[in-house]
């Protein structure tokens, strides 16, 4: 078996392993006990997704697709969810309400 993916934490390792298994690749997630020994400090690099030698190339292609889709989704979320956008509209609404109340 070879390491196909080095996850940040055990949850991400299981997400990737589930995606690979859904595509017909048998996986093994290692590092459960090592990460538990570190506690909740945020230790990284202990959770790995292992696949059989003959499935490594196909697994890495699927993982590359997963990571690129995740990066695109994160950039779209960042563009749409900017605090300044909400703050500007809030100020516009407050000014309009104040003007209406002052006028009437």
From TrEMBL:
**Entries under InterPro entries matching the protein:** DUF2007, N-reg_PII-like_a/b
- What region holds the DUF2007 domain? 1-66
Tell me which UniProt keywords the record has, alphabetically.
Answer: Membrane, Transmembrane, Transmembrane helix
Question: Which regions span the lipid bilayer?
Answer: 86-102
Keyword hit for Membrane = yes
Keyword Nucleotide-binding, does the record have it? no
Query: Pfam families from the xrefs?
Result: DUF2007
**Designated name of the protein:** DUF2007 domain-containing protein
Q: Which organism is it from?
A: Marinobacter shengliensis
């Amino acid at each position: 078996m070879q390491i196909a993916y080095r996850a940040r934490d055990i949850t991400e390792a299981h997400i990737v392993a589930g995606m690979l298994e859904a595509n017909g690749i048998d996986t093994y997630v290692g590092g459960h006990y090592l990460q538990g020994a570190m506690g909740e400090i945020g230790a990284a690099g202990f959770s790995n997704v292992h696949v059989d030698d003959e499935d490594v190339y196909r697994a890495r292609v699927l993982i590359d697709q997963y990571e690129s889709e995740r990066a695109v989704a994160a950039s779209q979320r960042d563009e749409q969810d900017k605090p300044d956008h909400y703050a500007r509209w809030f100020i516009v609404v407050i000014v309009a309400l104040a003007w209406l109340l002052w006028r009437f």
